[in-house]
Amino acid sequence: MNIQIIPLQTHGDDRGSLVALEDGNNIPFEIKRVYYMFNTKDGVRRGFHAHKHLKQVAIAVRGTCRFLLDNGRERIEVVLDNPAQGLLIESFMWREMYDFSDDCVLMVLADQHYDESDYVRDYEDFLEQSK
Ligand code: T46
Q: Which alpha helices (H) appear in the chain, and where do they start and end?
């Protein structure tokens, strides 16, 4: 499975660091929505779904977490621990997120507005539809 980690250029100087996100530049789609999760409780596992169409880029802007990505044939674990790296999550990819550090802020850029009908929440349905 081809997992794409997008390197995000860091503009650093003696004041600190800054990363800019621009669609068509370092983000490979038009950004229609941004959300972020934080204060994730110990031991929590999130996700457990795929998307029919949605593409996203996930960035741990603070702290660390892990992603399990599953395309129905292979499963890969990715550690997000760098605010200068974005994980591209294509459509029809089952995802689970876990091992959030206490300070983790996981930001996600999405190419569509929120739409519950785009979610595939049943793993067997996902396997069937990803054939
Ligand atoms: C994904 C992974 C990485 C909204 O109202 N608007 C939104 O844009 C989102 C993302 C969520 N919500 C509501 C729906 C639920 O009542 O927020 C609540 C928590 O969402 P959910 O249980 O879907 O969160 P996760 O962490 O399981 O999944 C989220 C995204 O939903 C999903 O698209 O790929 O993060």
A: 123-129
Range of the domain at 50: 4-129
pTM of the model: 0.97
CA of 15 to the centre of ligand 1 (A): 34
Query: How many of the other CB atoms lie within 10 Å of CB of 114?
Result: 11
Q: What is the CATH number of the domain that holds 83?
A: 2.60.120.10
Pocket of ligand 1 contains residue 114 by CB under 6 Å: yes
Angle at 78 between CA 74 and CA 84, to 5 degrees: 140
pLDDT in tens, 15-45: 999 999 999 999 999 999 999 999 999 999 9
Ligand 1 neighbourhood includes 108 CB (under 6 angstroms): yes
Count how many domains the chain has.
1
